[in-house]
Each structure stands twice: as C-alpha cells, then as structure tokens.
Amino acid sequence: MVKPKSIHDYNTLIACGLGFFLICLFTSYSGIGISPDSIMYTSAARSFAAEGTLKTFNGIPIVDFPMFYPLFLGIIKVITRVDPTVFGAILNSILFASLLYISGWIMNRFVPSSQLYKWLLLVAIALSPGLLQIYSYLWSETLFILEVLFFIIAFRQYLNTHAGKWLIAAAAIAAVGCVTRYAAVTIVGTGGLLLLLDRTLPIKKKIGHIFIYGVICISLLVSNLVFNAFMSGTVTGPREPSITPFIKNVYYFGTTMCDWMGLTPDQYFLAIPIASVMLLGFILSLAINYFRRSLNSYENLAITFSLVYGLFIILSSTFSRYERINSRLLSPLYITALWGYTSWVLLWLKSIDAKRTRTIVGGIFTLLMLGFIGKEFYIDYDRYRDQVADDYGAPGYSDASWQENEFANYLRNYDKKLFKPNVLIYTDAHEAVYFFSGMSAYLVPHKFFKKDVELFYRRDHYYLIWFNNLENPELINIKDIQKVKQLKLLKQFPEGAIYEFEGVDVVPATVGKDSLPARPVVRAPK
Fold first, then answer.
1. Terminus-to-terminus CA distance in the chain, angstroms?
2. Where are the transmembrane segments (predicted)?
3. Spatial distance between the Cα atoms of 103 and 33, rounded to a whole number of angstroms
4. Which of 85, 178, 452, 471 is deepest in the core (most CB within 10 A)?
C-alpha cells in the first residue's frame, strides 16, 4: 500500500471547519456551558491572572482538580485580558477543530490507509454527541483528549525508532496530561505496558527506558500532589469510598457505549454484554498484536489506551466515589475505541483478493458507518432544537433557566448591606453563589464527614443561601438544619431563600464552639 502523501492532511481542514462551526453553533445562545467544575477552573484562572496563584473563589488552593487546565485558562486570560467565560466558546471551537485535524493526520498514517475510511470516521467524530457536549463546556477534557492523541503520535515514533528524544517527548506529554486530569495516569500506564511488551528492545535498554519514562511521567503529578498535601492536608481533596460495586460500574460503562451506538434506554439490557465484549476485544487485539510483533501501529496504541483507560474508570469507580460513569468520564476513549473497532476492516479488505468481494465488504462497512453517523446527526439535531432553536442554551449556570431565575438575578445585584462583614456564608451550591454574586461562600458539610457536620452545628452566627433546585442528597439539607437551628428568613424567592442564624438553637447544642469553617467539598457536575 502506497504511503499517503502529506498533502492529504490539508483536506482534513474541511472537517476542522465543520467542527469549529458546530461548537460555535451549540454555544451560540448562551455562550460556553458552565458547570460547577467550570466555575472552579474559572475562579482559579482569575486568581492566576490577578495574583499569580491558583486559588478557588474561597481563597483555597485548587486541589480537587489538577492545576494545568486552570493555569492554561489563566495564561490565556493574562494574554488576552478576556475572561474564560467569554473566550471559552472560541477556545473550545479551536480545540475541537485541532482534535479533528490531528485525528485526520493519524488516520492518514494507518497501515493500510483509506481516504473513504478517514472521511467516514472524521464525520463520525465531528458529529459525536459526547464530544460535542464536552467541547460545549469549560471542562479539562477538552485539553486532555488532545493530549492523548499527541501522546499516541510521540510514542509511536518512539516504538518505531527507540530514540531517546521520542521517549522523552512522549513522557513529557504524559506528565502534562497528569496535571490536566488525574485520570491521565492511564496515559502513563499505556506507555508502560507497551514498553514491557516490546520484545524488540534489549532488556538492559528496556529497564533504562522504563526508568526514564516513569520518572518524567510522574514528575509534575508528584509535584502537584505534594503541593496539595502541603496546602490542604490531602493530595486530591476529600474523597469517599465508592457506593457502586464493580458489576454496576461495568453496567454504567455499557450504558454509555449503548448511548454512543445510538441505542435507547430500552436496550440497556445489552449494557453488560457490550461492555464485556468491548473490553475482552481490546485484550484479544492487544494479545494478537503482541504475538505478531506489531505493537508499534497507531491502531494498537489506540486499542491499548482504550483498554487501560476503560479498566481504570471502572476500577477507580469501584473503590473511590465520584460522579457515576457517564459520557463525560469516558469521552477520552471515544476516538481511540472507534479506531480500535473499525480499523480492522482496512486489514480485512487488504487481505481479500477478489475485487467483487472487497467491494461488497467495503460497501457494507460504509452503509453501517453512514447509519451510525445518521444516528449521531439525529441526536445532535434534537439537542440543537432544545438548546439553540428553543433558546435554552447548554444546561448549566449559563442556560435560560438561570438567566430568568429570580433568585439568581437578585444575587447578581444583591444588597451588600444584607450581609454583615466577617460573618461566614454557607450554601448548598457555593459555586453558584460565586458565579452569580462574586461572593465567597462555604459549602454546607457533607453527611459522610461527621466531624465537619459537628463543626457546622457549633457555629453561633452565619448566613445560609439555599437553592431549592440544587439540593444534593449527599449534603445536610435545609430540613436537617431547621431541626437544630432556628433560622431567620431574610429573603424568599421561588427558587430558594437567604437565612441568618444567630445563636438560637431549636435543640441545644451539645458541643463547644469552633472557629474553623467546614471543609468545602466540590460537587460533581450534573
């Protein structure tokens, strides 16, 4: 098969234009989507631009998230003097267009390669509902998914040449990835696994390369975690044990795959079989490539990353508690999994001698991909009608429900005399208070952290800003508080209220006073 000419990369710009347009389209009504995570990133970026520090709106160093993405936003803010909530839509449009270009560049170098295959997959990537959602929000995945592809390019060069410069380049990308998202340890794991499986590398050289690779990969992550421990006493913020067992997480993995395949919730009974087949298929493909000594292809790198990342998400969700496995969490493996489960068709077609049979197989694959793309387009169009045509916006703090929210509008222009100075403000959504008012507020304690609950109930004076529609069952709620504390209503709105507590208990407190605020816990985005 003739190697594709580099000029073929230029026609990928058409797909880049489509991707740029789609992100602009989905952010056209209310701008970039804003979730609780987005506000954490934004406040830290503002802190960097103003003070050179990476602190959240509560003046606490950002530890629940790695520091590179807010630093990235902060650097752009320093250069442009524009806030991330303003430049976010254009930034993500550029990042998504870049993702499509890099994807096309890699597919041009598949062996064998096919322009028809490349264009079918580029359209499938551009129209992916999961990726379009990711790039419609200020989320670190927008940068992390690009880093995955850059790592694949660099590590493939290393596997081809075993040159130290490419090993260092790949390790450096992995290191940056680890301080973009903690889940980037899967990039480190991908490279480490392939280094171990590489039978063309002499054992002595292999040990040296694994050592160099490992040290560089974890350098920034270790620095980040040490800084977190020094500043907050925890390496990644407060964490809880998981409440979802392994089999349930496999099921959630499978439901996400069902969604990506265009299946409906009525077909979720296929979730566990689909998840099992996908993961076992990746293991089998990796084993076959190992025995064939073909570990150095882009396709194998994609398969290996998909396997490592998928298993990591399932296992980490089994031991640590965070948001349920969903499309956002699994988005970094969308492109690599798509490559892993379609690129074999190119090898199959190459092995078929009969032109007629090759045409039939190629035609069937094309029809299947067009059906898949059609499903994606239908989902995207439905989302367009809900969020753009009906003037709603991306769900989150920038959507129409918050723009027309009486409570939010009051907070945007609140009476500063309402709050006495030096009195703590508590809330069930501290990121919302900051986003709408600019005020710092502490999150009411999480039920799991009993000490924090006790500390909260010891307080003799504070304000409480409560959002009815954001109630989190994992936090103590307003009814719990009112059973113990006599709250004075200051402002009432259809969507919530503002209260003050000043030393009057419904049930007398049994513990002494304490001056420390409850530990803030970052809520997962909805």
1. 48
2. 12-32, 60-79, 86-107, 166-197, 209-231, 268-288, 300-319, 331-349, 361-379
3. 25
4. 178
